User: Fold this.
Amino acid sequence: MNQSFLTLPSLEKASLAGRRVLVRLDLDLPLDYHGHGGDLFRLKTALPTLKKCLSEAAGVVLIGHRGRPQGRDTKLSLKPIAEELGRLLNHPIIFVENFVKLRGVKSEKSGEKLLNLVMLENLRFWPGETGADPEFVNKLAVLGDLFVNESFASAHRQSASATSLPRRLPTVFGYRFLQEVAAVERVFHSPARPVVVVLGGAKADKLDYLPGLLKIADQVLLGGALPRLNQLTNPRLVTAELGSDGLDISPASRDQFAKLISEAGTVIWNGPMGKFEDGSHMAGTEAVAKAVAAASGFTLVGGGDTQAALAKLKLTDKIKHLSTGGGALMEFLSLGTLAAIEAVRPRESSRAVSIMTSDER
Assistant:
């Protein structure tokens, strides 16, 4: 692969003084989240970016989405997320439900400290976000002088904020977003071999990533529901045997996967090996999790269910790079780019996906 993302515009090199900054965050926390406890991983990874913006910018507006609401849905409001993020930052966040109320908030500073940090309600409450409606893009664009994309998890989706706004405002990427890019670049350009990808879960559309993953991996291990859904054959594809009820991989496959992972120089894992959440089908996921945690090579893990399994087993801190994205990570690895990255490239050179031969990778 010849394409490099190391020259992407970064927050570190941006001048923030006197500028209003619009920051898109990964705010799509678990749907059972009510503002206390919950999974704060995505919020914590954004703190360095937010602290820099607060210390240097003239104004900061936070935007993001949560879930897939059909119109306004109070269960998917960002208000509890704003409260929790404010606690993590030790800085109050003014939460506003609409653009009219947002226009009434004035930026105030005490010395060098920005007093007003604002979060707008769930962008998906407006149909213009997912539809990338030009009028909605205009509403967002007037909120800032600079756009900071710190939302890796949604970087693979076309939207008004992630992929249309960069055509209207100068755009840079936040610290965590670029850390995610660096982790993937390591796989593309200088992977320790063999590269082993472990793909699980129950979503059939994950199989769409297989052709691209097979171009970068020495072996792809299929677990979860994917063995009975997959129709692709490849000598580097290792398909797990499933137990009699089909809800977990067999003991023999657990041992086989653990051995291949232990021998890998690079391990990428996305998706549990079975219905781990009910406890009685945890063995396959636990075996893979422990093998990945013990691996001496570079480990790159993404996906909400995968992270939940690691947290349940208290193995999260054993992973070299825990990604904030699941689908975004897999799409980046399989296609070689992301929609949000292409949005900052000159139109004449921008491509929806990068086209790379196996030799180029």
User: Anything to note?
Assistant: The mean pLDDT is 89.
